Amino acid sequence: MDLHRLRCFIKIVEEGSVSRAAEAMNMTQPPLSIMMGKLEKELKVSLFDRSGRRLTLTRDGEFLYQRGKELIASTENMVKELSEHNDGLRGTVTAGCITSANLFIIPDAVKKLREEAPNIVMRVKEGNSSFVLNELRNHKIDIGIVRTIFEAEDLHISTLLTEPLLLALPPGHPLLEKKSISIADLRNEKFILPTSSHGSGIAEEIMEACHNSGFTPNVIYWGTEVFPMLFMVMKGVGISFAPYNFSRIHWPELPNLVPLAEPKLETKLSLVTLQNHYQPSTVVRFLDITREVARGLQP
User: Fold this and answer.
1) Euclidean distance between CA atoms 210 and 215, whole angstroms
2) Predicted TM-score of the model (pTM)
3) What b/e sequence results for 183-215 when a residue is b if at least 16 CB atoms lie within 10 Å of its CB, and e otherwise?
4) Residue 223 DSSP SS3
5) Is 45 strand, coil or helix?
6) Hey, which residues does 163 pair with through a beta bridge?
7) Which fold has domain 162-266?
8) pLDDT one digit per residue (tens) for the chain, 299 residues
9) What is the residue extent of each domain of the chain?
10) What stretches of the chain adopt beta strand conformation (E)?
11) Is the dihedral of CA 76, 79, 85, 89 positive or negative?
12) For residue 69, how many C-alpha atoms fall within 13 Å in the half-sphere facing its CB?
């Protein structure tokens, strides 16, 4: 099979039309259409349903799109492996991660990687868990670091870091005078919580703890990032929660972060890679370094 034609086919599917794919590849539409005709002739199947105005795939087209992406990724990995074999440890590692991982893990991991393998270039894409997992499944990143809890047959998921959840209280809050704070003490508070984009996360754990203590929290704000929520706490809007490592940041703009005595709430960062997928030695080295850095951050 002509891999160039396969790449063009995949581009057409992802762009949603032949014209947009041609523009993205800096070519005109007619040659691309001819190329797809030759691909269909080569494979002896129809890849597109041309009966409607919109471009849709046949079942054969859907099959080729999924397997074609795997084939292209496998081919690219083979080229990387040959390059490493001939030239030594060099290349690019692309990671996708949530903000907290980009704050506390990636900087030290990149520093250590530069010391041990200066010919490896690091590329990082930051976003929520859904974004990271989508990029991973589309072979746009090598590894992902997320906080939400989930299961997936196509992914290998391992715990990278487990840390306590700390309570964020506004300046002068009466609970700051208590030696021991339980979740029941928060019954009358206004809660500022993070939304989980995929699976179960911090908010679900807090909601469950509140329900187990006999009340439903008064959630006045659902956010996506920890820092904006902590700034809102600082302004007295409500209370919130943050992973332990945020207490390492000593900014006067951040509120007090105190432990909960009951129950002991924890949150986990997970390392995610594609199941049964070849990992170049550059990625394997970065995974090892990432795990080493995470062990040093364990409370």
Assistant:
1) 6
2) 0.68
3) bebbeebbbbbbebbbbebbbebbeebbeebee
4) strand
5) coil
6) 267
7) D-Maltodextrin-Binding Protein; domain 2 (3.40.190)
8) 788 899 999 999 998 888 899 999 898 989 998 998 999 999 999 998 887 777 889 999 999 999 999 898 888 877 777 766 555 477 889 999 999 999 999 999 999 998 988 888 999 999 988 899 999 999 999 999 998 777 788 999 999 999 999 999 999 999 999 989 999 999 999 999 998 766 678 899 999 999 999 999 999 999 988 999 999 999 999 999 999 999 999 888 899 999 998 899 999 999 999 988 878 888 888 999 999 999 998 88
9) 3-83, 87-160+269-297, 162-266
10) 48-49, 56-57, 91-97, 120-126, 143-146, 155-169, 190-194, 218-223, 240-243, 256-259, 266-274
11) negative
12) 17
- Cβ contact 270:159 at 8 Å: yes
Region class of 236: left (phi > 0), else alpha (psi between -120 and 50), else beta: left
Left (φ > 0), alpha (ψ -120 to 50) or beta: where does 26 sit?
left
Contacts of 276 (CB under 8 A, 6+ apart): none
280 contact partners, CB below 8 Å, separation of at least 6: 77, 80, 81, 84, 91, 142
Domain 87-160+269-297 CATH superfamily = Periplasmic binding protein-like II (3.40.190.10)
Buried b (16+ CB within 10 A) or exposed e, 217-254: beeebebeebbebbbbbbeeebbbbbbbbbbeeeeeeb
- Alpha carbon distance 207, 121 (integer Å): 41
CATH fold of the domain at 3-83: Arc Repressor Mutant, subunit A (1.10.10)
Q: For residues 152 and 24, what is the distance between their CA atoms, to the nearest angstrom?
A: 33
Domain pair 87-160+269-297 / 162-266, same fold: yes
Structure tokens belonging to residue 79: 């080229």
